[in-house]
Amino acid sequence: MLPKVLVDADGCPVIDETIKVAKQFGLQVLLFCDTSHAIDRPEAETIIVSKGADAVDFKLVNHVRKGDIIVTQDYGLASMVLAKKGYAINQNGWEYTSENIGQLLEFRYTSQKIRRAGGRLKGPKKRQKENDEKFEQALTELCIRAIN
């Protein structure tokens, strides 16, 4: 059975690139979003969840099966996907693994503490075309691994 590609689509900058790569492998794409981000692509199935803290994440993780590929920026969601033996990749083509997820979750926790205390952190750099190309290449490699 072929894996599916599930996308945490709220704010995801690589939806079209994900669909393009998945199509090359004949993989089904599911887009998960809340009612304020209703995203519609004819080549993908959209699953709309009512707004709420982590509602999309929980709906998505409940659809994950072993070997599925998830596109997300969320470390917490990525850790739940890894626990279910899925693959997780971010919008820049960086794969979350059991080796790096603990450090990422710790970084997220520390960052939240800094923000709660009134501190500020630098945001991400402006997205470039090279980011999309790197993502497509990494997702292609991940699809090959997931299929085999």
UniProtKB/TrEMBL annotation:
InterPro entries reported in the protein's UniProt record: UPF0178
Pfam families, per the entry: DUF188
Coiled-coil ranges (or none): none
Family indicated by similarity: Belongs to the UPF0178 family.
Protein name as annotated: UPF0178 protein NST17_08800
Record organism: Caldifermentibacillus hisashii
